[in-house]
Design goal:
The chain is of the alpha+beta class. The chain contains 17 helices and 38 strands. It has a domain of 365 residues: FAD/NAD(P)-binding domain (3-Layer(bba) Sandwich), CATH 3.50.50.60. The strands form seven sheets. Strands 4, 5, 6, 12, 13, 14, 15, 16 and 17 form a nine-stranded mixed β-sheet that branches. Strand 30 and strand 31 form a beta hairpin.
Length: 803
């Protein structure tokens, strides 16, 4: 081993499709001083045994963009290098046999519209014409795609590697990284062939990501699960005819396609999820091209259904069974982006590596080189998991995700494993009052209130709980509502330079007086949204902030990462041990005044201000603000006292008409007020794209992202619109059309329960006419009317009310 320490800008650990694609995309961005380390041969982990499907008919715009980018990247590299990628562009069918699946197919058509992906919604007879061997007796509908198919895993990885080497980057096979440590501002990697200093490290280690992450103090939420696919003997009927499309069918939880002249059947069992190589031992370093013994007892029933679906395969022998380890995460999404450790990036946790690799590589490379990607990256951000994601949660929830791999993703569907995860003191009280909960970043939050023990019905269109949410919203508008928002990111930021730091990060000015509040947008270097926070100035050296709970870790990391070495700033994260109750409605002052000696009048406690007060003997941070657009207060207090606070509010509020409020009603009320939420403030747009010009204060001050923001013309416009529909709402991600052609997409929506209108936010290209627009939902076009002002209390008088 040499004593010489080499240096590199980026060290990539792992030579599967995720690592090689990342290195290629970095080279495309001009970062060629990179070394990829692979302990054995490229692809010898999970990549080599992948079935290699890449689909266009998937359920979200983001994932379709990822898949489309992967295909485009792979084709381009094949043309450049002459290295075959084994691409079979055979198209595919995604089969629907239930009404919910038909609705899902219809929603997929909107994704295709947004990305200009050729696809059709067809009936069983159309399936039979293209694949006469597939039984269509129970088929209700299908999405047919044309430009997707399957690829050779090794071939495409080698082509990417060749293109990367040609750009000057280095790949070192048979050189395992064995450890890492911090050395100044660099990372010292110890390899079998010497030490390397790297400015950045990318963990693309697949099933080894957990062990590698431990070197950097990271817990990586990824589990190796075993997946079967089987290859049959030769099928005589496949001779002398075009290759069949890839068939995906939830009836047996998998896929069937042609593999040369044989059939290939892949199965995800919904009753079991075998895992291997769990921590603390992890995957053996000596493992290479590892496969596991088939478990026919586990997959037998599903295999019989697959044979029934395609009877020509039923009587053939099985000539090969592939059962290999594939990484999955607790929510099924990959881990692509920054970790919680400086300059350590993740590109792992990918359960569909060939489909995701090229797109994921582009996302990560853009993020590393330019500070952000061209699409919204929050669903990939490895920091989306909070402190609740311990080892037990990671394994058990991932097993749940694997078993649900082929569930129909109806709106409102949630995981049920390990529920409730965070059972704070209010949970039993709310459950006894009929709360139906949804999980938010590990916390339970009431969605609506029904009968005790009620199970939420889910699906597209208005569900039975629609009436419950309407009652809650109207009762809040008439009197008062109380909602449990204990799932909330809360930070106390102190020190003589706390105000200087926050002012430097915010496009808006901080509150100038003690006790006042403001809504502040923290931007990236490129002038796009990093996050939105509320800031309460308690004193010149003490601030309290709030933001959505899913942003707790990323927001804390972002603020900390911008503290300069000579600044006096401390951050206390109260998100895990403080809670918040939001009291809103015209009777809220009367209710709260019975529990506090504080003066709650407008003169003493104005709108957008905060005070430290005692409520029913409990010290609280009371902030006069309301996300439903009513007179109201947020009451922040230690979680240990939240139940006591809740009981006191309801005891005082019972004679004033106080009601429990769930998140469905809350969302409908915020839509009536035209309040933007996280769906609108994404990482691919900035304040001028979403009509928040008034929040940008640039005169006489500097802030992060100002130069880019001032120099960039907004390419988008955010419209507040009424959807003309009686029984369905905007969910987000649907195409916005003008004369039948896509001009944008929706971001979020909901039913305005007190104005009796379905409302939504629409992103459209700048300069798009506001008249004649429609939104495609479930493959049907609904006209919209754009409104300039909120439909409820457009003058915003109610939050400032003196009554």
């Amino acid at each position: 081993m040499s004593d010489t320490i080499r240096t590199t800008q980026v060290a990539i650990i792992g030579g599967g499709i995720m690592g090689v694609a990342t290195q290629f995309q970095l080279a495309e961005n001009g970062w060629t001083d990179t070394i990829l380390f692979e302990k054995a041969e490229l692809t010898s982990g999970s990549t080599w045994h992948a079935a290699g499907q890449i689909a266009h008919a998937v359920g979200s715009r983001i994932m379709s963009w990822i898949n489309k980018t992967s295909i485009e990247t792979y084709k381009r590299v094949e043309k450049e290098t002459g290295q075959s990628i084994g691409w079979h562009e055979v198209g595919g069918f995604r089969i629907a046999t239930t009404d919910d699946e038909v609705d899902w197919m219809k929603s997929i058509m909107g994704v295709g519209k947004l990305l200009d992906l050729p696809m059709e919604l067809v009936g069983p007879e159309d399936v039979a014409k293209v694949n006469p061997f597939y039984k269509v007796d129970d088929v209700k509908a299908a999405v047919r795609t044309f430009e997707d198919g399957h690829i050779d895993p090794s071939g495409v990885t080698m082509a990417l590697a060749a293109a990367t080497r040609a750009r000057g980057a280095k790949i070192e096979r048979h050189n395992r990284v064995v450890g890492a440590s911090r050395k100044g501002d660099m990372w010292l990697l110890r390899t079998e062939k010497g030490n390397v200093l790297a400015e950045h490290v990318v963990i693309a280690a697949g099933s080894y990501a957990n062990q590698v992450g431990a070197w950097f103090g990271l817990t990586i939420p990824s589990v190796s699960c075993l997946h079967h696919y089987l290859v049959t003997d030769t099928v005589p009927e496949f001779a002398n005819r075009p290759e069949l499309p890839v068939m995906r069918d939830n009836a047996f939880g998998g896929y069937i396609r042609q593999e040369q002249r044989s059939g290939l059947i892949g199965i995800y069992e919904d009753h079991v999820c075998p895992t291997v190589w769990e921590m603390p031992d992890g995957a053996p370093w000596a493992a290479e091209n590892e496969l596991f013994e088939a478990d026919y007892d586990s997959i037998g029933d599903f295999l019989m259904i697959a044979f029934d679906k395609m009877p020509i395969l039923a009587d053939l022998g099985i000539k090969r069974v592939v059962r290999g380890a594939i990484t999955h995460t607790p929510d099924g999404g990959m881990l692509v982006g920054p970790s919680e450790v400086p300059n350590v990036w993740l590109s792992c946790g990918s359960s569909i590596g060939l489909a995701w690799g090229g797109g994921a590589g582009k996302v990560l490379a853009d993020w590393m080189v330019h500070g952000e990607a061209e699409i919204n990256t929050r669903s990939f951000d490895p920091r989306r998991y909070g402190n609740f994601a311990d080892d037990h949660f990671i394994v058990e929830r991932t097993k749940d995700e694997f078993r649900r791999r082929h569930d129909t993703p109806c709106p409102g569907k949630q995981f049920q494993s390990l529920r409730p995860l965070n059972r704070h003191q209010l949970y039993d009280r709310l459950a006894a009052k009929g709360a139906v909960f949804g999980e938010v970043a590990g916390w339970e939050r009431p969605r609506y209130f029904g009968e005790v023990g009620e199970v939420e019905q889910i699906g597209w269109g208005h569900q039975p709980w629609h009436e419950n949410a309407q009652r809650e919203a109207r009762a809040t508008r008439a009197a008062a509502g109380l909602i449990d928002l204990c799932a909330f990111a809360q930070f106390e930021i102190t020190g003589k330079d706390a105000g200087k730091l926050l002012d430097r990060l915010s496009a808006n000015k901080l509150p100038q007086k003690d006790g006042r509040m403001s809504l502040n947008h923290l931007l990236t270097d490129n002038g796009r949204f990093e996050t939105e926070i509320t800031v309460w100035r308690i004193a010149s050296d003490r601030y309290f902030t709030g933001s959505p709970i899913a942003r707790a870790n990323p927001d804390c990391d972002w603020i900390k990462s911008n503290i300069r070495p000579d600044e006096d700033v401390q951050i206390v994260n109260r998100s895990a041990n403080w809670g918040m109750l939001a009291l809103s409605g015209p009777a809220s002052r009367r209710i709260l005044s019975e529990l506090t000696d504080a003066d709650l009048t407008n003169a003493a406690f104005p709108w957008l201000s905060g005070q430290e007060i005692s409520v029913a003997g409990i010290p609280c941070y009371a902030l006069r603000v309301s996300f439903v657009g009513e007179l109201g207060w947020e009451l922040h207090a230690p979680l240990a006292q939240i139940a006591q606070l809740y009981d006191a509010l309801f005891e005082a509020g019972s004679k004033h008409g106080l009601t429990d409020l769930g998140s469905y009603a809350l969302n409908g009320m915020r839509m009536e007020k035209a309040y933007r939420a996280s769906g609108e403030l994404t990482t691919d747009v900035g304040p001028y794209d979403v009509g928040l010009d008034r929040f940008v204060v640039s005169e006489g001050r500097d802030f992060l992202g100002k130069t880019a923001l001032m120099a960039t013309e907004p390419g988008w416009e955010l419209l507040y619109a009424e959807l003309h529909s009686d029984n369905i709402d905007i969910y987000g991600g649907e195409p916005v059309l003008l004369n039948g052609q896509p001009v944008g997409l929706t971001t979020s929506g909901g039913y305005g329960y007190t104005v009796d209108k379905s409302l939504g936010w629409l992103f459209v290209r700048k300069g798009t006419p506001h008249k004649g627009l429609s939104v495609q939902i479930l493959n049907r076009n609904y006209n919209v009317t754009v409104h300039q002002d909120a439909l409820f209390d457009p003058q915003n008088l109610r939050p400032r009310s003196e009554d």
